[in-house]
Amino acid sequence: MTEERRPRRSPSAGERLRDPTRTRERILDAALVEFGEHGFAGARIGAIARRAGVNQQLISYYFDGKAGLHTALIERWRRLSAALNPSDAPLGEVVAGFVRVSAEQRHWVRLLIWQALAGHRDEGDTEYRRAMVDDLRRRQAAGEIAADLDPGYLQLALFGAALAPMVLAQFAEDFTGLSPESAEFRDNYLEQLTRMIGHLAERS
Q: Is-contact 11 64, C-beta < 8 A?
């Protein structure tokens, strides 16, 4: 039996920790690193348990194995991205928030790349992404985006822009002369990206 498919059982009294919410979050933090570094196929439950400092059976108890753990991570990402996209925030501010998260939490970027390379979709992915496009349509109707722009293609471009400094780090440095890990690059990139987004609106 593989380590990802061990029988689910309640942990013993000695294995239970006093704060199950904190324990779950520690496991998720460790899983994010493991999935980000190795993808779903290469990730190992034993490595996640060691990184989180918990008994491996706790992962089966809380998440029912690797697939459940991956699903919980995707749900966490969706909550995070929803918090970055309040309906009353300007589009430039929203995109800047995603750029910051991409820079500060690189394992999220790696996880998304692994998912894309594998051609994997989690349950609800299509609806979730279409909702992102619907939000751009709402902004377009409010005049924040020019009427001749297609929200679907625009969403793809903006999503790529948020990930580009991390995914294409060498290109970013060669294009700008600055390391994408530097504060100067990030400040400049956010300023320029905000300016670009500002030009998306209709001009009177």
A: no
pLDDT tens-digit map of 28-57: 999 999 999 998 889 999 999 999 999 888
Question: How crowded is residue 104: how many other Cβ atoms within 10 Å of its Cβ?
Answer: 9
* Residues in Cβ contact with 23 at an 8 Å cutoff, skipping those fewer than 6 apart: 17, 54, 58, 62
Domains of the chain (ranges, CATH numbers): 1-72 (1.10.10.60), 84-204 (1.10.357.10)
Provide long-range contacts, Cβ within 8 A and 24+ apart, for 65-73.
Answer: 65/4, 65/5, 65/6, 65/8, 66/4, 66/40, 67/4, 69/27, 69/28, 69/31, 69/45, 70/31, 70/35, 70/40, 70/122, 71/122, 71/123, 72/28, 72/31, 73/28, 73/31, 73/32, 73/35, 73/111
* Confidence grade of residue 2 (pLDDT, cut at 50, 70, 90): very low
pLDDT tens column, 57-94: 899 899 988 889 999 998 988 888 888 888 889 999 99
- 20-26 contact pairs (CB < 8 A, 24+): 20/62, 23/54, 23/58, 23/62, 24/62, 26/52, 26/53, 26/54
> How far, in Å, CA of 68 to CA of 80, rounded?
18
Q: Are 116 and 160 in contact (CB under 8 A)?
A: no
Check: CB of residue 107 under 8 Å from CB of residue 37: yes
